[in-house]
């Protein structure tokens, strides 16, 4: 089974004739369509995502807005973080030294792996 077959066979019957501006309702209709018997992972959710994106794009075009604005605008800046804060296999003193170096370099956020080995 391919994505276009899922859209044609499972999603089209619940979408055709509906108001394309009611994206959330259409998403629910697709989610609870017969496609859920195929599964809610893999190709079915990829197909649903493709339709969902197309519906948002259609709505933005109908409203004469860029999609980013319809979805809430934009930010001038985003906060970044260092992803090398520490790993389970590193001794505490090494992790501490790494974190001190990151703070000295100006990082204010760090992602770390935690838990037990």
TrEMBL record:
Keywords: Magnesium, Metal-binding
Biological processes per GO annotation: amino acid catabolic process; carbohydrate catabolic process
Pfam families recorded: MR_MLE_N (PF02746)
Residues of the Mandelate racemase/muconate lactonizing enzyme N-terminal domain: 3-72
InterPro entries documented for this protein: Enolase-like_C_sf, Enolase-like_N, Mandel_Rmase/mucon_lact_enz_CS, Mandelate_racemase_N_dom, RHMD-like
Cofactor(s) listed: Mg(2+)
One of the record's GO molecular function terms: magnesium ion binding
Protein name, as recorded: Mandelate racemase/muconate lactonizing protein
